[in-house]
Amino acid sequence: MARRNRQPAKQWTGLYYARVQRGISRSELVRMSGISKQQLSRLENGQIRLRLDHLKPFAPHLGYTPEQILLWGRYPGTGGSHVESSDVLREEAAHDEPLGPSPGRVPELDTRAGLGGGLPAREVRKDGRHADPLKPEGWLFPAGFVREQLHTLPGRLLVLDTTGDSMAPTIVSGERVIVDTSHKTPTPDGLYAIRDTFQCIVVKRLQVVRSSRPTRVKVISDNPNHPSEEIALGEIEVVGKVLCCLKLI
Fold first, then answer.
1. Across the strands, what pairs with 231?
2. What is residue 233's DSSP assignment?
3. DSSP assignment of 120-141, as one string?
4. Bridge partners for 203 per DSSP
5. How many helices (H) does the chain have, and how many strands (E)?
6. What's 235's DSSP letter?
7. Contact by Cβ (8 Å): 101, 80
8. For the structural domain made of 101-249, what CATH number should be given?
9. Does the pTM of the predicted model rise above 0.85?
10. Hey, what's the torsion of the CAs at 163, 164, 165, 166, to 10 degrees?
11. Whole-angstrom Cα distance, residue 173 to residue 115?
12. Per CATH, is 9-96 categorized as 1.10.150.120?
């Protein structure tokens, strides 16, 4: 008797998880993106290996960057469902480490965001990209709070644990901040999470020097005992805008 060939299990990609996270049906995404339903299905179930150019038609409608979708579960602001969308991710999956919180919860980085003394917050992969380690448990905020107070979407948020005193008294070491990772441009002026030269995530006050050409940005510490600096806008990697601080009384 001939044996029936077993079909391999589907390997859902970040495109599938991003669509589900937003509550958008496949038909709706087809209509918004102009990509055929058959092509979308193949991209979601892993029949086609994802590339950034595949994701550009979908990213604006899903509210994620192509990089977030490609590296779903390993990129700040995405859910915890790990997706094997590249050889790099397959290699990392072999370590059997927690890959982040469950979908619907806001992830928190597994290293503290520096306020003048942070720790390295990401590892360099073979392809030159970086991955931020996430804690296995995430935060669950009321939908009304995210929508009406933070004015964003849950999938764009990231929680950072801070350390150091460079932003005191505004932010005290050990307090957590909520960051909107979709806000990559330092305007308006305010508090932002950025990468420093040591690849640490630090929270600083950014002020654009609008009269400068090319544009420069003041990186300010609220604590007067810590120096501020002025650098070119192109030299700053903005992780996101700080929306609020979670304080313990």
1. 217
2. G
3. B--EE-TTS-EE--B-SS-B--
4. 193
5. 8, 10
6. G
7. yes
8. 2.10.109.10
9. no
10. -100
11. 7
12. no
